[in-house]
Amino acid sequence: MTRFQNKVALVTGSSQGIGAACALRLAADGADIILNGRKLDERGEDIIKQIEALGRRAHFLVADVSKMQNVVDLVNEAISVYGQLDILVNNAGVEKNNDFWNVTEEEYDFVMDTNLKGIFFGIQAFVKYCMNNKRGGVVVNMSSVHEEIIFPHFAAYCASKGGLKMLTRNLATELAPLNIRINNVAPGAIATPINKKLMETPELLEGVLDNIPMRKLGTPEDVAALVAFLASDDAKYVTGSTYFVDGGLTYHYEEQ
After folding, report:
1. How far apart are alpha carbons 170 and 161 in whole angstroms?
2. Per the similarity annotation, which family is this (predicted)?
3. Mutual orientation of helices 68-82 and 118-132 as an angle, nearest 10°?
4. Which of 23, 142, 195, 236 could join 14 via S-S bond, C-beta 3.0 to 4.6 A?
5. How would DSSP label each residue in 114-170?
6. CA 18 to chain centre
7. How far apart are CA 119 and CA 114, in angstroms?
8. In what order do the strands lie in the sheet with 32-37?
9. Residue 88 three-state SS
């Protein structure tokens, strides 16, 4: 029996990077997958093909998860695709680089709505489904080491991840009687498209590696492995926590 036999997972923001790796890992472990992104392009189509090559089903739903109604509709549509939803992976996230004194309301709302509000109401929709059908569920949120450590010029991003940390702790207590577990995964410096500039600029990369005891960037697959563990029955007594995937960065970090 595979780890996620007869399970369905929704992974938001799964066109590339960590989200795509999570979708592929869950599929490799036996889950059918609902993919999501702002648009379906060749990246999403390629991931569908890879999942189907693993012998699992895959379906892509287009949604901007920064809007409350969009994310509620996304969860409900995901449930309708295969008739059930067992695992919700809230991976979609954004960041904006700006000095605090120059951050606009538009930038602030874009970050907070995507990284916190959308997740809040997506989980709510999933919980309502679980309650109405008297079934348990698992939620894994993609946080960041910056729920814990500073990130100058990314104040809204840090605030959103700090909020996600507290939301997860609070919901762990509130949802435990419903047999719904919830945890955060907090990646550090991961080799993804969002870090393309970093990886192509030796002096920037060296500054980051100086803060990582393992002296290397992580991979999306490193993160996906932890997501799969937390989503599985191997972690059936684990809820309300954040797990860092950072090569030792968090408690070694020093601002340059």
Report:
1. 14
2. Belongs to the short-chain dehydrogenases/reductases (SDR) family.
3. 40
4. 23
5. IIIIHHHHHHHHHHHHHHHTT--EEEEEE--GGGTS--TT-HHHHHHHHHHHHHHHH
6. 8
7. 7
8. 58-62, 32-37, 8-11, 87-90, 137-142, 180-187, 242-245
9. strand
* Confidence (pTM): 0.95
**Longest Cα separation, the chain:** 55
Contact predicate 164/205, CB 8 Å: no
User: Contact, 231 vs 140, CB < 8 A?
Assistant: yes
The pair of three-digit structure tokens given for residue 61, joined into one six-digit string: 């739903």
What is the dihedral angle through the alpha carbons of 97, 91, 241, 4, rounded to the nearest 10 degrees? -160
Q: Could you list the pLDDT tens digit for every one of the 256 residues in the chain?
A: 689 999 999 999 999 999 999 999 999 999 999 999 999 999 999 999 999 999 999 999 999 999 999 999 999 999 999 999 999 999 999 999 999 999 999 999 999 999 999 999 999 999 999 999 999 999 999 999 999 999 999 999 999 999 999 999 999 999 999 999 999 999 999 998 777 788 888 888 888 899 999 999 999 999 999 999 999 999 999 999 999 999 999 988 666 5
Burial 118-134 (b: 16+ CB within 10 A, else e): bbbbbbebbbebbeeee
Tokens found for residue 46: 């390629």
Q: Which two tokens stand for residue 160?
A: 């959103």
* Three-state secondary structure call for residue 201: coil
